[in-house]
Amino acid sequence: MVVIFEYLKNAWTGSLSEIRIVKESIVFSRKKMLFLFTLTEICHILGVTPLELFISTLSWLTFSILLSVKHEQLAELKWVHVFIPLYVNIGLQWYLSTIVLIRRFRMRSRPGVVFPRYIVSMFSMVMILLTEILLMQQLEDNSSSSTRLYIQVFAPYFVWLVMVAIFYCAGCTRQQAPFQPVTFNNN
Length: 187
Description:
Blueprint: H1 2-11, H2 16-31, H3 39-46, H4 50-72, H5 79-106, H6 111-140, H7 150-153, H8 155-174
């Protein structure tokens, strides 16, 4: 904070009282945190529940920590161990989606709406899981002996992106309202 104050003091052509006002406004803006979206808005935009968002955030945080440990060679880890949090994330997402499917069938929801959304959700998870497995295998092999290209590794992810784009565009053109993503978890 002193560095900011000294920089402003040297750069400011005004009086010292004006510099203190600027410094106090910087401190005030750091204490008062501004959020762009609330949790419910983020969950609605992503089409997930807060529990799914928490699981995904926790798994990606754990994956990032393990990736840093592997990269810095602080511990002897294999790539399989680094990717375990992402595999657990996919497994838990699959489990939660199956629970939602069973609940919707028990609530007598229309199977013509529930089942296709479940299939799309499962297809998405399989494509992401396949990309993670191929990436882990690519990293496990030495680059000199590897015959697989990275475009081949990420091909399932690209297929998933195209599928998501088509699915969202189809949902957007069917509705005569502002854009609302059609996802499995929306009620």
